[in-house]
Amino acid sequence: MRQASTILSIDTPGRGFTDITRAMAEWVAQAGIEEGLLTLLCRHTSASLLIQENAAREVRVDLAAWLDRLAPEGAHYMHDDEGPDDMPAHLKATLTGVNLQIPVIDGGMALGTWQGIYLAEHRQKPHRREIAVHLIGA
Amino acid sequence: MRQASTILSIDTPGRGFTDITRAMAEWVAQAGIEEGLLTLLCRHTSASLLIQENAAREVRVDLAAWLDRLAPEGAHYMHDDEGPDDMPAHLKATLTGVNLQIPVIDGGMALGTWQGIYLAEHRQKPHRREIAVHLIGA
Amino acid sequence: MRQASTILSIDTPGRGFTDITRAMAEWVAQAGIEEGLLTLLCRHTSASLLIQENAAREVRVDLAAWLDRLAPEGAHYMHDDEGPDDMPAHLKATLTGVNLQIPVIDGGMALGTWQGIYLAEHRQKPHRREIAVHLIGA
């Protein structure tokens, strides 16, 4: 049984979803684990991680619009030190979550055919985001 | 330290919650792990996994109605290729999440007394769903 | 490779967020694991776990108010055996989730600078809550 871990840095272009599926697949492949467990932790409170549809781009457009409706910008937040998009970003990160776990089976991530791994940036401006990555297996 | 993993297939009867607690408990028991970590990944983007109340059926009825209010069907989605229940299903799966992790202690899942594990089907029609399952421990 | 696991009991003062970051850091430190994976499971369906901003208290005030807007108390729930705050508590626990995973790197939890671990109590009254904790690594 072995482990591998790293801190991955990803530059986001501002609000939206960055596909990190290939980056994670390559990292798992070079670790040489046939069976195991991959864990991701987004080290921020206004960005998050999710697994969603990787084919139809419209799903991510609708998802962003829906998050905006559930956590709109506005004057009713106490916390607005960093601007009107700050508190909504914390709420969207809470809803989607900062953790993902993916079993590794037969040397690859056991994702479904239509599943992609996304880093969700909830702030308007570009940010450098860090993801703690851990893999255990054999 | 050992590992076990599998892909579990589950037929859902359409929209609603399928209790998979017993199936998971049996799979953990036959693996013979006394202490470890169980991980589940739902391999779909319009179905999801959650842990909720296993006694009062009304909780699941209220939960389904609440998800309908937060992610209603309607004409305001760009993505509707597969019907009006498709995009709301992606949103509900995002809110509830596709991952669960359950510590195994003293040979069994360390769930609370009132906790059950549910596969949530968010599409109207029955589907065959797959869950990637991973267990590590000793 | 080694494991450690325990059931942690925490008394909440009623609705709100209890910071358990230091308790978890101390537990990880005494386990003497340099690289590994920490998993938490809240063993309840009306309390939950989340990672959020640890500096500005206003973020948690806004978060609580937002959860109240998304899952308000009211007469439209079927499940109200335990009072008007019961079903909203189940919904808030579903949105935030009962699981957290934190990679351990260089002997400590790989949290971001501004991240704290919170036990979220969604019932009005104080409760004793249990968290199943699992650590694997070397």
TrEMBL record, chains A, B, C:
Q: Quote the InterPro entries the UniProt record gives.
A: UPF0047_YjbQ-like (IPR001602), YjbQ-like_sf (IPR035917)
Instruction: Name the domain of life this protein comes from.
Output: Bacteria
The record's family statement is: Belongs to the UPF0047 family.
Write the protein's name: Secondary thiamine-phosphate synthase enzyme
